[in-house]
Amino acid sequence: MKADKNLLSGSTTLLVLSLLAAGDKYGYEMIAELDARSDHTFTLTLKEGTLYPILHGLEKDGAVNSYTREASTGRTRKYYHITRKGLRRLEEQKREWTAFSQKVNAILSALSPAEGEALSGPASS
Amino acid sequence: MKADKNLLSGSTTLLVLSLLAAGDKYGYEMIAELDARSDHTFTLTLKEGTLYPILHGLEKDGAVNSYTREASTGRTRKYYHITRKGLRRLEEQKREWTAFSQKVNAILSALSPAEGEALSGPASS
DNA sequence: CCTAATACCTCGTCCTTCTAGGTATAATAT
DNA sequence: ATATTATACCTAGAAGGACGAGGTATTAGG
């Protein structure tokens, strides 16, 4: 329940940049898209209080820029567009994520066979 | 450089439990093992200031228990042993991690083909 | 003898996310 | 007509997790 939130840590910016690399989007839309992609299972939920400050930070860094648009519904939306700088950053973070997740998976899969050894030491559960 | 630290967030407990599931270990050993497994590339580095509080927390929760042992070198080591409760927790966190990382990977790989759509909207980089 | 390595620990700081609030407009229900 | 819900944006402060920097003690090596 609580671990999900923690897992998100650090990969939030990566996810935001990824979404924007697929096309310009506005904040509310990104949250809805992530929510839909995680089948509403709370696996990948991004909160407004998290997203908006991140978008502002990315814009300040020049990784994205924004423009407002009137939707056909009459609503004003603020769209974000990823820049070349943002794309470079995305690639870099993607590499880091891949390296990291592979290492974690390697450790996770390497533990089961050594189960016998775990019981060889003095233990009391 | 800095993103690595953040990526670690949330999966630290999972990694610690994984290491212990492969056999009883002491703190210093776990740090060295993770460092070796990440080829010293800083991808998976766990710091003492992070590990020890986590181990104490896990022990308080009953996920691990500990015993001291005199090594052949004459040094006193504090070994940690994972309990049944800890194993259950490990399995749960493993599932969460797997679900999470798969979703992230799905998003990462789903972005490139939509590149054309990204340029259909009004944009200015 | 003095330094480096082993082995443990903790406190305060920083960074990231969330909670909980706020504003404003459009659509829907009453 | 009016109230509620949904859309769409925002922010300040709280909370949580990892780290840096410090500390202690013992052993090995120069």
Descriptive labels:
DNA-binding; three-stranded antiparallel sheet; 125 residues; homodimer
Descriptive overview:
The structure is a homodimer. Chain A is of the alpha+beta class and about 120 residues long. Chain A has one domain (about 5-100): Winged helix-like DNA-binding domain superfamily/Winged helix DNA-binding domain (Arc Repressor Mutant, subunit A). Chain A has 6 helices and 3 strands. Chain A has helices at about 5-10, 10-20, 25-35, 50-60, 85-110, 115-120, and strands spanning about 25, 65-70, 75-80. A 3-stranded antiparallel beta sheet of chain A has the order 1-3-2. In chain A, a hairpin with a 5-residue loop joins strand 2 (about 65-70) and strand 3. The longest helix of chain A is centred in the C-terminal third of the chain and has 26 residues, at about 85-110. The model of chain A is unreliable at about 115-125 (pLDDT under 50). Chain B binds a DNA duplex (30 and 30 nucleotides) through helix 1, helix 3, helix 4 and strand 3.
